[in-house]
């Protein structure tokens, strides 16, 4: 067992100063069978520590329904086996470009703006969650022979709020649950962020992508003593659907990393390896200087332009970082691990079995109800997925505009069974007016809850009502379809027929593979939806780009037949083909 502590000027292990050279690697964005390889890649780059968030909503999708929190312990054991330290960031809010910033929809829906404050109901939910999570962290702390050296209090709170009592309550809660590892906060290098997000007596760190000296000078105004650390060195960035990909030049990133180390600081690369937003867990941002503008949903890939790419391969940035980090290592760096096998030969298959969306909803959807006004996704207990809203436009009446006020996020609309168009938050009114009597259906899809800024936690669905001309339409029937209901047995029991007409629905088929390994899945001609391979949800695809294929981890594929499901939510191609390469 080692004694790790925050010294007056440095981090110390057994009384000797140590530099933390850390990298972010999120266990939930990497297939578990690939953890060891990715950790080996980080070691070979010159890192001695790994940082991970813990997303609450992944592990508690419904109140009291806690799922596989032991995964956190298994990951920390893998970190120990790799000979590295661990930094754990349990939130309860994590941002991470993750759905709702990691907060469960069943918390943010009813509590609204009371989230991330000292509100008693919010803190009670956090206490129950931490009570389930923290034993897996506590028993793996460094003073018990484990890898955990630091635990974060909240996350970038100074960018959101100013409730110091809330932060103090979280710090006390962690200590009361047995956390003896060093507590810390992480905020942007601005006075209001550091003053709003720090806790007296708790180490403060800063997040930035450049200008290290200026950032640390700002930190020193608030904390004259203590180790310097950039907890998030943004060496890359994430991408949004419908936007150009963001790339940071390797030479520029390497210079910025060198500047951090020349300041005598420790560092955590965000991200060292990004991985993937499997199972539709990608979050979203709001544009504009105040983060309250148009929705910007995050793509499925979380490659992040990181030094270790989504496939686990070293990039040019990896080699440049390795050169920068090598002089700070204790001894020679390990060799770069052998790369995992890749798919030996391209493969393709037609998805010849089809179930229309109505049939999928009937078999797998939640309970249907009638409501005076459209209920939100939160009220229907839908975290990731769709809601079908059905309403009657009474008649006889003339042709008037149909408006979905406060639509979040996108809706395919049918009038008397015929596709009438697609509505969005920016274009919530049907192009063609609707005359009554008519039956209208809106299949509304969440594109990811906001994970950062003042609108984090906002509801999904038709949040402002359905209007025909200026008149609200009441008596709305609504039914939700969650992504996590798509299990093998449930899908096998669906009624099915031959696909035709490019209709939305669930398409199924088999792709024969020879030489299984890491692969990319392509969906030529498909519009928008979700994909499963052998029951493993790869995440969302969308023809707007910039992402054109989905990463398939090698452990998901098998020799011979591989079952593929595609849930198309808009328009499918006439030839429902998928390709692996």
From TrEMBL:
PROSITE patterns: GLYCOSYL_HYDROL_F35. Keywords: Glycosidase, Hydrolase. Residues 11-325 form the Glycoside hydrolase 35 catalytic domain. InterPro entries: B-gal_1-like (IPR026283), BetaGal1-like_ABD1 (IPR048912), BetaGal_gal-bd (IPR048913), Galactose-bd-like_sf (IPR008979), GH (IPR017853), Gly_Hdrlase_35_cat (IPR031330), Glyco_hydro_35_CS (IPR019801), Glycoside_Hdrlase_35 (IPR001944). Residues 374-475 form the Beta-galactosidase 1-like first all-beta domain. Gene3D superfamilies: Galactose-binding domain-like, Glycosidases. Belongs to the glycosyl hydrolase 35 family. This is Beta-galactosidase. It comes from Streptomyces beihaiensis.
């Amino acid at each position: 067992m080692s004694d790790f502590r925050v010294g007056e000027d440095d981090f110390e292990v057994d009384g000797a100063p140590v530099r933390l050279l850390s990298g972010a690697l999120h266990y939930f964005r990497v297939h578990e069978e690939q953890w060891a390889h990715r950790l080996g890649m980080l070691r070979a780059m010159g890192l001695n520590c790994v940082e991970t968030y813990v997303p609450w909503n992944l592990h508690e999708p419904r109140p009291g329904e806690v799922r596989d929190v032991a995964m956190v312990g298994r990951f920390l054991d893998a970190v120990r086996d790799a000979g590295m330290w661990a930094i754990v960031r349990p939130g309860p809010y994590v941002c991470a470009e993750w759905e709702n910033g990691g907060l469960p929809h069943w918390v943010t829906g009813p509590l609204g703006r009371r989230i991330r404050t000292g509100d008693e109901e919010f803190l009670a939910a956090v206490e129950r969650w931490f009570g389930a999570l923290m034993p897996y962290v506590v028993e793996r702390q460094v003073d018990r022979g484990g890898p955990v050296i630091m635990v974060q209090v909240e996350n970038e709170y100074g960018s959101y709020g100013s409730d110091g009592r809330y932060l103090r309550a979280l710090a006390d809660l962690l200590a009361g649950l047995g956390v003896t590892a060093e507590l810390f906060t992480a905020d942007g290098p601005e006075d209001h962020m550091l003053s709003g997000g720090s806790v007296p007596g708790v180490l403060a760190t800063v997040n930035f992508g450049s200008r290290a000296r200026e950032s640390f000078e700002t930190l020193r105004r608030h904390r004259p003593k203590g180790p310097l650390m950039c907890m998030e060195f943004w060496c890359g960035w994430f991408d949004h659907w419908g936007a150009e990909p963001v790339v940071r030049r390797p030479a520029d990133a390497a210079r910025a990393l060198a500047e951090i180390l020349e300041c005598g600081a420790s560092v955590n690369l965000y991200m060292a390896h990004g991985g993937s937003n499997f199972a539709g867990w990608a979050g979203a941002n709001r544009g504009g200087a105040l983060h309250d503008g148009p929705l910007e949903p995050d793509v499925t890939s979380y490659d992040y332009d990181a030094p270790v790419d989504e496939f686990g391969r070293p990039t040019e940035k990896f080699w440049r970082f390795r050169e920068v980090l090598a002089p700070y290592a204790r001894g020679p760096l390990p060799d770069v691990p052998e790369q995992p096998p890749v798919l030996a030969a391209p493969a393709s298959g037609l998805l010849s079995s089809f179930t229309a969306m109505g049939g999928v909803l009937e078999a797998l959807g939640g309970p249907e109800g009638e409501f005076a006004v459209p209920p939100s996704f939160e009220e229907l207990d839908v975290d990731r997925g769709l809601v079908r809203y059905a309403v009657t436009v009474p008649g006889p009446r003339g042709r008037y505009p149909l408006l979905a006020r406060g639509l979040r996020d996108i809706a395919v609309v049918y009038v008397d069974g015929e596709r009438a168009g697609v509505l969005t938050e920016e274009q919530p009114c049907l192009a063609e007016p609707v005359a009554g009597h008519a039956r209208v259906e809106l299949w509304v899809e969440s594109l990811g809850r906001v994970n950062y800024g003042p609108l984090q936690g906002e509801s999904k669905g038709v949040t402002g009502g359905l209007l025909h001309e200026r008149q609200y339409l009441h008596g709305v029937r609504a039914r939700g379809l969650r992504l996590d209901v798509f299990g093998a047995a449930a899908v096998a029991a669906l009624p099915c027929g031959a696909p035709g007409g490019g209709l939305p629905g669930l398409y199924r088929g088999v792709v024969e593979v020879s030489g299984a390994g890491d692969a990319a899945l392509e969906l030529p001609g498909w519009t928008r939806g979700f994909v499963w391979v052998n029951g493993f949800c790869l995440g969302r695809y969308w023809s707007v780009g910039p992402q054109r294929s989905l990463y398939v981890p090698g452990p998901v594929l098998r020799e011979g037949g591989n079952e593929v499901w595609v849930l198309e939510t808009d328009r499918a191609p006439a030839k429902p083909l998928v390709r692996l390469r």
